[in-house]
């Protein structure tokens, strides 16, 4: 999850309203890409002027705000435009609360390995997954949105397919002393489903039937992404086996 540590001197962010205002603008950065609001943690750490040193000297004139940011839930693409988009979003969030007040500031962003992250003892769901969207709706981590194929109520919606998925995994687990296996959880096959008209889009006639007003959120996966994921799994067989 994004963790912001905001180190600030006396006379800045003294009341709850100023802290809440900045926190809300910070939160928009992340909820804007679909992350649950509760992922966003902002800690304000007030430092005495005796404890703020810059360039080997005490910083006593203009307030200096130092911000350390940890990103865990989502990694930034290794592209210059992606890094610029992220830092621009951070600058935009800080502007009315720091820059416009005449403070000096500096921030940096670290990216933590996602596999070293737990929430209430649980492994957070993959970015963009249905479970993550449900965590966002509930605004809390929850076990009730576990593997859908093992949820009796959900499995009953498609008794010909979903129970078989859980059964296949159980069988593979029972044979792990003889074989290794890996599973890939995808969304609906987006490009294939579009061609087949499963999402209500009739491409030849250029017509569409909107489902639930066309505003409901769902997850999908392109066939090319599935192919890349399978290649990556094979390239990292030891890391992905038996799960």
TrEMBL record:
Residues 1-140 form the Tautomerase cis-CaaD-like domain. InterPro entries: Cis-CaaD-like, NmrA/Isoflavone_reductase-like, Tautomerase/MIF_sf. GO terms for molecular function: oxidoreductase activity. The keyword Transcription does not apply. The keyword Oxidoreductase applies. This is Tautomerase cis-CaaD-like domain-containing protein. Keywords: NADP, Oxidoreductase.
